[in-house]
Amino acid sequence: MRYISTRGDQTERSFCEILLEGLAPDGGLYLPVAYPTVDAATLARWRGLAYAELAFEILSLYIDDIPAADLKALVAKTYTPAVFGTEAIVPVRRLGDSGLLIEALSNGPTLAFKDMAMQLLGNLFEYELGRRGEQLNILGATSGDTGSAAEYAMRGKHGVRVFMLSPHGRMSAFQQAQMFSLQDANIHNIAVEGVFDDAQDIVKDVSNDLAFKRQYKIGTVNSINWARLLAQVVYYFAGYFQATKHNDEVVSFTVPSGNFGNVCAGHVARMMGLPIKHLVVATNENDVLDEFFRTGTYRVRGSAETHETSSPSMDISKASNFERFVFDLVGRDGARTKALFGDAIAREGAFTVSPAEFSAIAGYGFQSGKSTHADRLATIRRTDERFGDLIDTHTADGVKVAAEHVEPGVPMIVLETALPAKFAETIREAVGREPGRPAGLDGIEALPKRFTVMKPDTAAVKAFIQAHCAD
């Protein structure tokens, strides 16, 4: 399997080359030259496999430069009940008689779905760097969950340093504590005085400085990294097998989304042949994706227009992974994709796809909807009272939007993206009590914290990386 850029660079690269690279040299994102497809016989063979076995089967279709025995060992090391709490790894539960099912993706070490991919990424990085005898400086941006998942996956890994940017004061107290309380020498937290998109822009700026990127061996763990998105494809198959009995059944998924990475993995699974009828994108008040799927216009917002909400991990107005889907939508035309995401965004901060392209969206199964703070409170309260199931704020956005798109005879699976403990303030507002916490996390907010506050300045971040690479 070889990979090309969404912006027209047709140089084909291997999986391990792009694993450590992040963005392509032309500023695009990597995608396989073609999606491998699976037939009914393959689905039948995969049904009933343990999660690690299923992950190996899917990853093997995309990774041919890691020996099969090594890949199998890496996957088996990653997806264990000890790390994810259950044999199923991503158990699916029914939400009473609502017609909805919830796929639990948040039982890993940081209580968020990002662990599903990040734990694998940490093991892949350590393996490949050891094989090359190299080091890697990971630069990432987080709105709350990516950062802690990356840091817990990379802490203590040989040959890896992490520089994680986050919006200063805009994460929940629990999210901040998870990241900033880590004292590992290879973990560096930078709190940017701005919003997530300011932090994400810095990561892209640094990644586009090819000389700096190569000199300091900069890699990424954000979902612009194909390996992370690929790992997420697995749980769509796992959810499908749990929600159905036969491979001629179809399901739909609703995905709370801000950066489009999670739902983009569903798009890849659907392109591979998984019987997905609809992929429903659920946004919060930062509804750039909902606006696109309703109108065909993708309009990024500046910091002043990016709302601070009670589902903060979705407070994003520049959806980095969205470029991958648009590349497929426009017939994998790299020049067209570059004109939209490079030229049009730089010039006008927005683009509108053609009428023909807009009409083609339906063929990819996408639908969308929006949820507000009032909706979240009502959904959390109603789900708790009616079903005895306490959900977090982001999953509540998904449940609210999913209920608007349920179809008779088609299971609707909502991806649970975090546990309620991470957003205690809003949970208390909704149900009047404190959410439970897994053992060992009581009092995490009181732990000593280590982080650096900075202006949203790419040069300052580069200087910080240079200084700490010399340590």
UniProtKB/TrEMBL annotation:
Pfam families xrefs: THR4_C (PF24857), Thr_synth_N (PF14821)
EC number in record: 4.2.3.1
Gene3D superfamilies: 3.40.50.1100, Threonine synthase, N-terminal domain
Positions bearing N6-(pyridoxal phosphate)lysine: K114
Family annotation (InterPro entries): Thr_synth_N, Thr_synth_N_sf, Thr_synthase-like, Threonine_Synthase, TrpB-like_PALP_sf
GO molecular function: threonine synthase activity
Domain Threonine synthase N-terminal: 2-79
One GO BP: threonine biosynthetic process
Keyword Lyase: yes
Cofactor(s) the protein needs: pyridoxal 5'-phosphate
Assigned keywords, A-Z: Lyase, Pyridoxal phosphate
Similarity comment: family membership: Belongs to the threonine synthase family.
Protein name (record): Threonine synthase
